[in-house]
Design a protein that fits this description.
By secondary structure, the protein is of the alpha/beta class. The N terminus is likely disordered. The protein has a single domain, classed as Rossmann fold. A hairpin with a 2-residue loop joins β10 and β11. It is built from 10 helices and 11 strands. 37% of the residues lie in helices and 13% in strands.
Length: 293
């Protein structure tokens, strides 16, 4: 089991049994069919709480994800959670192959009677999620990411984020084609890394790279805000209200884990640089607040 867990940490996948998590809020039923779409931050990728209730275990979908909390709080009669760790916009209309099974196209879960959809995606299309791992270093003065991504004054990550905008926009169009009556909420990414100095060596990323990552996250969220405005869907801003809960904060305060794959919320193996249960709870509160607003 330990060997399997170690492999899972590397692959950001999970095989542990899920733990029951109570919804963060309650609300009168208003929606009949809710479908959750997105990547690992939508799945709230987890090792200790991984579940295959809706998707293969290779998706590392958490039993305490924000979508499941929202579905419970709204008491929807039909709920389908298609979210999967590592998902890109292409996996909304096409299958996603994981080491532990194939997740069918996420759009397959949509129907003409779907009346609520949450979507959180784009980080993998831009390549920002994978870039965090590239910034790890034993030298606090190194700028691995800056040197690799900013050349001659041109920031290739900014270009990637801009290129992902068209793909996320098309994804919203794809939802509307399949679920024309759905209320669509597009979530941004909360503050996993701030724009201030890092916390080397707790998170072994130099201050320069940490600040760069923080700025790129803001750019990614600004892109998602533009998509929401252009397509007329609702943006759920989880970033603004997450300040002071990044991965450099102590257990109980941080909403996202750092490099060490261990979480205190809940205790157990975690997926590095992904939301813990406190982060998932914050996302759920944000969605429910948007729906009640």
């Amino acid at each position: 089991m330990v060997r399997k867990a170690s492999r899972a940490v590397i692959a950001c996948l999970g095989v542990a049994l899920p733990l029951a998590v109570a919804p963060v809020a309650s609300a009168a039923p208003e929606f009949g069919e809710y479908v959750a779409l997105g990547d690992s931050w939508a799945a709230d990728a987890s090792l200790i709480q991984a579940t295959d209730d809706f998707v293969p275990l290779g998706c590392a979908q958490s039993s305490g994800s924000y979508a499941k909390q929202v579905a419970a709080a709204l008491a929807v009669s039909v709920f389908r959670d298609a979210t999967c760790g590592g998902a890109m916009t292409k996996n909304l209309a096409g299958p996603q192959y994981t080491p532990m099974g194939v997740n069918p196209p996420q759009f397959d879960h949509l129907t003409p009677s779907t009346d609520l959809v949450t979507l959180e995606i784009g980080g993998n299309d831009a390549g920002l999620a994978a870039t965090v791992q590239q910034c790890l270093t034993a030298d606090p003065t190194a700028s691995l990411c800056l040197n690799a991504w900013v050349v001659g004054g041109a920031d290739r990550m900014s270009s990637n984020i801009l290129a992902a905008e068209t793909k996320v926009t098309a994804s919203v169009t794809g939802i509307r084609e399949r679920a024309p009556h759905a209320r669509i909420l597009l979530l941004d990414y909360f503050e996993g890394v701030s724009t201030g100095p890092g916390c080397f060596p707790t998170v072994p990323i130099s201050d320069a790279d940490a600040e760069w990552l923080g700025r790129k996250l803001i750019e990614l969220n600004a892109m998602l805000a533009r998509v929401a405005q252009a397509t007329g869907v609702e943006l759920v801003d989880t970033y603004t209200t997450s300040s002071g809960h990044d991965g450099c904060r102590p257990p109980g305060t941080r909403w996202v884990e750092g490099l060490i794959p261990w979480s205190s919320n809940p205790p157990g193996l975690a997926v590095p640089f992904h939301p813990n249960q406190l982060g998932a709870d914050h996302q759920a509160r944000s969605v429910l607040a948007a729906l009640s607003g």
